[in-house]
Amino acid sequence: MRPVYYDEILSTRPPVDWFEIISGKLHDSGGRPLAMLERFRADYPIVMHGVSMSLASTDPLDLDYLKALKTLADSVEPAWVSDHLAWTGVHGRNLHDLLPIPYTREALNHVVERISRVQDILKRRLVVENASTYVTFTQSEMPEWEFVARMAERADCLLLLDVNNVFVSGFNHGFDIDAFIEAVPADRVAQFHMAGHTDNETHLIDTHDQPIREEVWTLYERARPAFRRCFRDDRARRQFSALSPNCLANSSACATSTPRSPPTRRGAPRELAELQSLFQAAVLTGDAEDGALLDVVAPPREADRPR
Asked: Could you tell me the pTM of the whole model?
């Protein structure tokens, strides 16, 4: 629900099922956005989506942000509040991006504890989205889909299944996208995200600036019947009905035949806080070839990424 659409929504009252708002842009904005939100929520269900919770960061939770988020949620009364399985910075620095995590038991314990604290503060269940990733950690002890399933069960949270992010990460890292979808606990999924991405030949980037790729629609259609909690999505149904039969038949367009095992450890094990410090330092300096970072981060492997 962006300002560019306000007038159209007011004049046409489009027959959509619900609106999503970007909560970080509203909880302290005041003025017209909040006034429009108050008008629209009388006629449409609202969900709140964020990018600033930094759930996986080893920095302390931002209690001021969470307090403002709770105030907005109490006012808006959304169907749910969501954010990402990612971190945005450490040591007080915000890199304004959704950064990857190692899929380790330590990281799992850390994220579960953080989600539980957030849910206690918000007094509601949190919906957590899988983020797209472009590197993997050699420290990982389990595949992403196992991490996500364990996290949802232990934290008793819900999931926002971003189908495009599964596709993007599956292509970048060569894992089986079907294994990911099948491992997601169906009773935990509250919402789907769909988006377009940029194809850079050797890797995909989740830019949201391209049409949704047909293979992503296919993956969505394979996933959708298993997840009954989600809101109806009329636009998705119309878009999918227009797809070609060839697209529907190509059910493994970017998947390898078998799931990839987690990377073998390389170098000495490092704690989550140290991994995030190394990663952030490389981002801030632009030194992606730093030896300490290369010891724990693995780029996508060309041979494992089918076209």
From this structure: 0.85
